[in-house]
Each structure stands twice: as C-alpha cells, then as structure tokens.
Amino acid sequence: MRVRVDPLVCEANGVCVGLAPEVFDLNDDDELEILKPDVPAEEADRVRHAVRSCPKAALTLEE
User: Fold this and answer.
1) Does the keyword Iron-sulfur belong to this entry (predicted)?
2) SS (H, E, C) the chain
3) Which of 13, 14, 18, 39 can bridge 1 by disulfide, Cβ–Cβ 3.0-4.6 Å?
4) What residue ranges do the domains of the chain occupy?
C-alpha cells in the first residue's frame, strides 16, 4: 500500500498526523510530509483511517 498527498489540496490540518504519527508529519513550514509512503502492514489500518478522516480529502491510497 502506498499513500500520497495532493499538496495543492492539503491544508496541513494535521488530522492524519494525530492518527498515524509514524507515517505523517508536519514540517517547519506547516507542509505535510509522508514519512513512510510505502505503508508498513502494521500501520495500514491507521493510515486508512487517516485517509478517510482528512477534512480536505487530500490523501489517497494505492493498494
């Protein structure tokens, strides 16, 4: 599974960071960084939840 962000849509609300901090982070410029674009199996459920919870629908998954 691979997760991606559309930087033109993302508002860096940080919902995903709160739900899956091992995969997502906000940098010093308040831009979303994906720490693990190839999602480890043990993080898959949390990342799916984070993608569904994104208030701007800026995250996508490729399974």
Assistant:
1) yes
2) CEEEECCCCCCCCCHHHHHCCCCEEECCCCCEEECCCECCHHHHHHHHHHHHHCCCCCEEEEC
3) 39
4) 2-62
